[in-house]
Amino acid sequence: MQSLFHKPTQDSPEIILDAQNGVFRIAGTSFSDNPFDVYDPVITWFNDYLKTPNKETVLELKMNYVNTASSKQISDIVALLVRHKDKNIKVRWFYDKQDEDMQYEGETLSMTHEIDFELIPY
Length: 122
Fold this sequence. Notes:
Blueprint: E1 4-6, E2 14-18, E3 23-30, H1 35-49, E4 57-66, H2 68-82, E5 89-95, H3 100-112, E6 116-121
Parallel strand pairs: 3-4, 4-5, 5-6
Antiparallel strand pairs: 1-2, 2-3
């Protein structure tokens, strides 16, 4: 399966979706005026990947800031994973222990979606 890489920009995160090496990471800042441009390819990629996923899939999210529109897109990605949670899927939300907003964002995602979800302060 082809990997998906998106280099971070001023308003969009780094995205690494590499099934061959088992790396699934979205990290950085996300406040694009059109988050669909950033996240639609991610949703498409996961739809294809989940047809024959690895034995374990761990999506790592390490966001510094997300606006409401980006937050909705990230929630949609997690919702997609929830529909396949029988395939050993986990989500890890990393947040700066002094950033209450990102902690709250992760807590909200974990309460909204029934999936193996870990909040990890750093």
